[in-house]
Amino acid sequence: MSWVITGGAGYIGSHVVRAFQAKGIEAVVVDDLSTGRRSFLSDDTPFVEGSILDGALLENAFDEHGVTGVVHLAGYKYAGVSVQRPLHTYQQNVTGTATLLAAMESAGVGRIVFSSSAAVYGTPDVDLVTEDTPKRPESPYGESKLIGEWLIADQAKAAPLAHTSLRYFNVVGSGAPDIFDVSPHNLFPLVFDALLAGRTPRINGDDYATPDGTCVRDYIHVADLAEAHVVAAQRLEAGEALDPVYNLGSGDGVSVGEIMRAVAEVTGIEFSPEIGPRRAGDPARIVASGERAARDLEWKMRHTLAEMVESAWAARKAAV
Predict the structure, then answer these.
(1) What pLDDT was estimated at residue 315?
(2) Domains in the chain, start-ordered, CATH in brackets?
(3) Phi, psi (5° rounding) for residue 264?
(4) 317 Cβ partners below 8 Å, 6+ apart?
(5) What is the pLDDT of residue 79?
(6) Cα separation values, 258 from 35, 46, 218, 263, Å
(7) Of the candidates 161, 261, 247, which has an alpha carbon nearest to the alpha carbon of residue 211?
(8) Is 141 labeled as catalytic in the residue annotation?
(9) How far apart are CA 163 and CA 144, in angstroms?
(10) Dist CA 165 CA 184 (whole Å)
(11) How do residues 222-249 score in pLDDT, each as one tens digit?
(12) Residue 49 CB neighbour total at 10 angstroms
């Protein structure tokens, strides 16, 4: 049993790789290092540097390593920036997924776990998002993830392909002191970078219809997320039926204000966040049910908010 992890040198991908390795499953990484870091992987991790747009490279990797499945994490993940770079986003996320599926079919690789996103829902009008909540993506990124799901489902009708897609929201924390979130757009890195630079973190709006006036979101620990990928791969490898999609949600959510208070407590840096205007399109609350994933993928929230902040802060400080 050997699985390719596309995007496996990234923040999430490297955690997935280590989760596979912890279960004794060989993980072969394909990554172009556009945002990933080779240092996030152990020296003995099989590594192929290249793009998922290179079908020949993918086929060679599948054949050389006797690959039986793929966890597809590679893609352009910046929703806001995707509005300015729609063609690039579609090339990386849609053309890349189609190229990957073609290479898998050619090499006889018949299992895939796809990294999808809560961005497929857009701004939902329900308190608790389920897999059946209408999909209304509001960015090229969200659209490309939904199209990726469609591509995989359609390919499964045309060729032998066991598959599932995992939709998740805000991934935080660290499962290892040498891996940290490198995104310039995510909340935790933005807050930590501000504190390390002596600046005051900022909240975009505090007048929402929520308990403390700040937006409520699903925040899940990256190590919990990685475990769900491994279980999904193992179930597919065993020939067990899985649903086409699962939400990896917390069921209750955390407000931005709560996160700021937890950061101040964990870091020991007292601050009162600056309050800026609302960002256009930011809903007051987006929280998902993880019941189906709990049923089939052993999904659960194993980390508290304090543990999410503590692990992320320790990893970020170690990188300074």
Answers:
(1) 96
(2) 2-171+220-248 (3.40.50.720), 172-217+250-288+302-318 (3.90.25.10)
(3) -60, -40
(4) none
(5) 87
(6) 29, 40, 12, 9
(7) 261
(8) yes
(9) 18
(10) 25
(11) 999 999 999 999 999 999 999 999 999 9
(12) 13
The pair of three-digit structure tokens given for residue 66, joined into one six-digit string:
């006797």
Q: Name the amino acid, one letter, at 126.
A: V
The pLDDT, as a whole number, for residue 284 is 87
What is d(CA 235, CA 21) in angstroms, rounded to the nearest whole number?
16
* pLDDT attached to residue 319: 84
User: Can you list the residues of the chain whose pLDDT is less than 70?
Assistant: 281, 320
Single-letter residue type at 73: L
Q: What is the pTM of this model?
A: 0.96
From 121, 141, 168, 208, the catalytic residue: 141
* Phi-psi domain of 205 (left: phi exceeds 0; alpha: psi -120 through 50; beta: other): left
Residue-averaged pLDDT of the chain: 96
Q: Give per-residue burial for 213-237: e unless 16+ CB within 10 Å, then b.
A: bbbbbbbbbbbbbbbbbbbbbbbbe
